[in-house]
Amino acid sequence: MGQGRFLEGNHILRTDKVSFDGKEELSPAPTPLSGSKVLEQLQGISIIFGKKRRWEDNVILPYKWKKRSIFFNLLYWESLLLRHNLDVMHIEKNTMGIRRMLYRTSRVPNKTYLPPTSFTMSSKEKEVFLKVLESIKVPDEYAYSISRSVHLPTRNISGLKSHDCHILVQQLLPLALRSILPKNVSSILIELSFFDIMMHLPVHLAEEAKIGGQVHYCWMYPIERYFEGVETKFNRPVRNDDDGVRESEEGFAIFSQIGRGVGESKMFELDRTTFMQAHRYVLFNCDVVRPYLKNHLETIRRRCPRARTMDIERIHNEEFPNWFNTHVKELHRKRYEQVSEKLRWLAGYPLNVARRYKGFNINGFRFHTKDRERNRKTQNSGVVVTAKTSSFSSARDMNLVEGDITYYGVLTDIIELNYYGHLKALLFKCDWVDVVSGRGIKKYYFGFMLVNLTRQAFKNEPFVPASQAEQVFYVQGNLNNKDWHLVLKNKPRKLFEMHGGNVETYVQSEPLQDQTLEDIISPGDGNVTLERTDILGMEIDIPFELTQATENDQGNDVESEDSDEEDGANA
Is residue 484 part of a domain? Predict the structure, then answer.
């Protein structure tokens, strides 16, 4: 279609005949018209508008112009580098030309045979594709329930709104296609599809991005959010409202009053194991306690000079809460140093009665426990936390390994520890995937991350501060192996962190790993398969001769239009 003209003059894909239409692209890109040039072409021409005008009242404009834009009445319009901006959200339909090997043929009299393209799916593959989409549960405010729009008996998808189509194309389509089509085909559909109903639009997107910046700087969503006096879907109250953040005293950040419970809360009695695990986690993650943690470790090393590092860590975990309680009481009694009242309450253990929630809004996300969402169409129990951790890679490892580790888990409980009304800590209890040994996590091509939810670890350390939790959701990676799940990280719909600041955006999950055109297409390698040979094509009840005549007529029209457009651009 000539889009290769917009590549750089020495680009390697200009000479790639095999991967495209069989021709080298030697033509330069057309020169964009400036505002001054457009006005020059329309100088002295008057157009009459209205329903009562006669066709002969208006002259035929040169260069196929239809009218002089009213925006040129604005004094600055002529000088703008980007006078019109394409709406990326509506550019979502695949474009593709027809290669000779995919031309219609005649196999049976009075019928036309359509060969199957490389991305054509068989009936069984369509069924698998739809079953994957049907099984997907997404978080609240992410999208409409896609599964309700999937109709397996008729093998189609219907009833989606524009936002749902955007989510389907940008996020869910790659998940469903990855294991159905061959890699060389799915890579093109996942990474390089332009999703445009008009063939000439995608070639302008790169130039517009150079001038106007990233797409979320140019569209109307941020503007609509702040319309005063006009209710839009962007300025309604946020469904996942977390009531903001109420700051805590320095050193006690883990006790920050943040978030809002969903539904009724209940009081319950903590069992001994949960009580100690939760209290120990609070102590080990409270900034004001860190000097005492170091002090206790040094005490153990002096007491057990020949002990292994793993044994020292185990003793430290088991003995620190009691040691800390006794140590703080002793400091306060002998007044060796100033001990705050909050520190004394923290060292004295919490109440053995805690508050339990089944859902909680925090950090812009809505979290549900696994039990609460069991019969729901949405998934809000996926948790991800990135933390600097010291851990052992195996039971035989003698040394601690430190580094930032991303932990994936499923939320099983939400509890609020109460230190006699003076301090309250909200904790998420999760079943964590084994990400340290590597048995529960692996990376797939296209940047997919897979986790095995049955491979669990850290059962003695199940808690994490709710304030540090972010949300993911899991999609079954293979219908034949239900243990492995693909991971998609969710983001609050209203915020996107970039270069240290918050930028309004419409992206709701992190994109897959970026690839370039050269990473996927090997120019001139000759290994380009456009037709599937393992499935049958389609026969339509139209004589082959009739389709040939129609195709020839359309081809002549298109060639004539392309020639006229090039003449206008060159002029």
Answer: yes
- Cα-based angle 236, 239, 244 (whole degrees, multiple of 5): 95
If you average pLDDT over residues 104-130, what whole number do you get?
A: 80
How far separated are the first and last CA of the chain, in Å rounded?
21
387-424 pLDDT, tens digit per residue, is: 876 655 555 555 555 667 899 999 999 999 999 888 89
Residue 156: which residues within 8 A CB-CB, separation 6 or more?
none
Determine the Cα–Cα distance for residues 359 and 356; give it in Å rounded to an integer. Answer: 9
Tell me the one-letter amino acid at 50: G
Give the Cα separation of 569 and 481 in Å (integer).
56
- In one letter, which amino acid is 562? D
Say if strands 260-261 and 401-419 run parallel, antiparallel, or are unpaired.
unpaired
562/25 Cα distance (integer angstroms): 15
Q: How far apart are CA 369 and CA 360, in angstroms?
A: 9
CA distance 518 to 14: 12
Judge whether 85 lies within some domain: no
Q: How many domains does the chain have?
A: 1
Residue 106, pLDDT > 80, answer no
| Number of alpha carbons in the 13 Å side-chain half-sphere of residue 335 | 0
Q: What is the rounded distance in angstroms from the CA atom of residue 105 to the CA atom of residue 132?
A: 34
| 171 in any annotated domain | no
Residue 231 belongs to some domain of the structure: no
Q: What is the token pair recorded at 110?
A: 């009075």
Rounded CA-CA distance 408/255 in Å is 23
Instruction: Using alpha carbons, list the distances in angstroms from residue 169 to 93, 147, 260.
Output: 9, 15, 33
Give the contacts of 411 (CB within 8 A, at least 6 positions apart).
Answer: 367, 368, 369, 370, 381, 382, 383, 428, 429, 430
Domain residues for 414?
Answer: 245-491
417 backbone dihedrals φ, ψ, rounded to 5°: -75, 140
CB atoms within 10 A of CB 299: 14
Residue 335 · residue 345 · CB < 8 Å = no
> Which pLDDT score is estimated for 201?
61
The tens digit of pLDDT for each residue in 274-329 reads 999 999 999 998 989 999 999 999 999 999 988 888 889 889 999 999 999 999 99
